[in-house]
Amino acid sequence: MNTILLCLTCLFVGYLIGSILFAHLITRIISGKNIRELGNLNPGAYNVFTQVNKFRGVVSGLLDAVKALLPMMSASYFFDVPNIALGCLGIGAIFGHRYPLYYHFKGGRGASTLLGMFLFFIPIEFGISLVVDAILVLGFIRKQYGTWGPSILIALSLVSCLFFQHPAEVKILVWIGGLIVLWFNRDGLQKLFIKPVAEETLSN
Fold it and tell me: pTM to 2 decimals?
C-alpha cells in the first residue's frame, strides 16, 4: 500500500478508536451520571478519579492509554506497519479522544491516550519520567495534580527520548503527539503560571 494512503488509513482508524470515551461510558454505566456535568466537566480519567471513584478513574485512564497502545501493537505485530504509520495511529487516537465522532466532537484532553503512544515508542523514558514525575508532584508540588502531573510527565518524556537511540521518525512523532496534547491542555497550563503572577501583581 502507498505510504501516504497507509498513514491516512491509520490516522482514520486511530481516530475512530480514540473517539470511544471510556470516562463517559464508565461513569454512565456505574453511576448513571454524565461525567460532563461533574467536576471540571471534562470527560477524562482525572475527572472520574476525583468525582466518581479513584479505582474507576485509574481504569478509565488505562483504557484511554490502550486506545493508542493496542492498535499500535497490533498493527506492528500482525501487519508489520512502519513507524510513521504507527505514529499516525497514535496521533489519530489522540485527536479522536479530543474530538470524538460519537460525542459531537466534544472530548477530553488526550493525556492518557498519549501515554499509550509513549508506552509503545519510548517505554524506558516513560518509566523513568513517571517515577521522577511522581516524586516532584507528590513530594514537592502537592497541588493541581490533574495539570502538573501529566504536564511534567509529558515534558520529561519528550526531553529524555532525545538522549536514547530511536529512529528519527519516532522522536519526531513522539514530539508531535506530546506538543498536540500540551496544546489541548493549554488552558490548565496558563492557570498554573498566569494566575500566580496576577495574584502577586495585585498584592504588590
Answer: 0.93
